[in-house]
Amino acid sequence: MSDAGLPANDLAELRALVEADRERTAERLAFLTRDLTGILDSAALVATDDEHDPEGSSTAFERAHVQALLDQAREHLRQLELALDRMAAGTYGRCESCGRPIPVERLRIRPATTTCVTCAARSR
Ligand SMILES: [Zn+2]
Q1: CA of 23 to the centre of ligand 1 (A)
Q2: Number of H helices, E strands in the chain
Q3: Residue 102 CA to ligand 1 centre (angstroms)
């Protein structure tokens, strides 16, 4: 019984958390993509005068900022997908570094995490 992993009710609760987060993240991704497209469109309008336009650099900054958020959201979505994969495979909730079970309290806060607190602190 030692290797049974998480109790079914905890697993169901965490799966619901991950799925809700995945939905939110997918929405954010769509929103950011629209945002980035909007910035690129407005940048294209002033592109011919970019060097002299004081707005030019702030557009580039805004674009980089949105792009960074987009990358972050994409990465987070990937982590959530991987968490769902691990749930399906029955390996969810185990620290990938030391192999010990990750406390459910930690999983509730960070359902996509792959390491226990000790290993997370060590790798920092
Ligand atoms: Zn660990």
Answers
A1: 28
A2: 4, 0
A3: 7
